[in-house]
Amino acid sequence: MSVQELEKEQAPKQAGFGLVAWLRWAWRTLTSMKTALILLFLLALGSVPGSLVPQRSVEPDKVARIYEQSPALAEWYDRLQLFEVFSSTWFAAVYLLLFTSLIGCIIPRTATFVRELRRKPPAAPKNLSRLPHSASFESDLGVSQAAWKLRRLRFRVVTGDGWVSAEKGYLREIGNLFFHVALLGILVAIGAGSLFGYRGNVLVVEGDGFANTVAAYDRFMPGNQVSAESLQPFSFTLSEFKVAYQIAGDKRGQALDYSAHLKVSDTPASPARDYELKVNEPLEVDGTQMYLIGNGYAPVFKVTDGKGQVAFEGPVPCLIEQKATMTSGCVVKVPDAQPSQLGFLLQFLPTSVPLTDGDHASAFPGELNPEVKILGAFSGDLGVRSGRPQSVYELAEPEVLKKLKPLVMGSSAPKPLAVGQSMELPDGLGRLEFTGVKEWITLQTSYDPGRFPALAAGATAVVAIALSLMIRRRRVFVRVSEGRVEVGGLTRTEGSAAGFAEEFSDIVKVLSAGEKDVR
Fold it and tell me: Where in the cell is it found (predicted)?
């Protein structure tokens, strides 16, 4: 064998980077502090679209409006799951990665901290003058007396032959560890709320009631572990709803206060109690909260069909078209009218005033001169019995609307109806009467069992991060020999040397003070 072949055979071989090594690298990268901070930042950044883009679970009407006004934009929002940010796949992925990263950070940190607690302070160095902080003085102070004084200053103390070693600041590591545990607790609390909590939206008109059942909600979003039996069995009746508006000045028409008066029964057997529901002052029953999130008008109509029978009578919630004046669009469907079904497109004006062109508009959001403007009346099959779901705010789908027979349109429409007035339909098909005005409110129900645990974990995180930032690890060493005492000190926290100088000076003063009996 030649020398070259021998050297080639004895040369070190390059180690392979197999699957196990890649997995180890991935785990170390995921559980590093840098990765955890990046994931936490991404979680906060991912929450921003949830505040800027309307969410289906909270504002379904605004989502529908985006689809109407900008279909292409709405389609992209839907593809990116921006209408459902907090239940989206990408948000859940960041959430779970952060959860795993925190667990991977906490386990080794806990093991390291336990070892630190069990480890005694090291023996004092022989030359204390080389430490960042040092001092010496003449005294007959003994080892036991120095140890006693340092214990009084809450140091952990170890003594030896002519020396004392003391350490302090373990709360810094406790704060750091508890901060990570608190972050993990927040994630667990949020996850528990998603599994065992629920949310819902409901519209209630004055005089109507609500019972906390799945069927009573307009939109219900349960957690994976929620069933119909999980809901708290309370109910209430909306007695009255009031809105106070600014009546003069630059902010005329601005809402000042909202107040809904409820009769609440906490259980089916309990007596009703009065409750005033306001914005940011939710009704709470057994952990379930109901927030007031919207309001509008529900004019009351009475429709008599062509055979003289009352085919419809009751309030109709109207969709707000102009928030400043509360001008609202209303749809009345009468599928039981005879000899043909009837439908009406109406506009409610809370404070109706005539315009110069003969039209009418609302000048104030309050109910000062309520009138209903007739936009259109139709007869024919509305398609409500086709089995396909329909919106209560739309008369019919476009293809169905084309087949309806217009009875009143445009110039043939009468003047706006005031309360108590009616409009006769042509060909003896019936009559529409405007009989009164009620108001409606929209409520958001929220039951989140993780709410208080998340609050406790958040408070713990604040206290823990304060401890980790304000407290520093430091060591103090004392050597006693032949009437002379040497003291040295150093910090174990980077950047805290300046703050330790004053404390070290105080420690030296305590040690050099008059002798005391050791007790």
Answer: Membrane
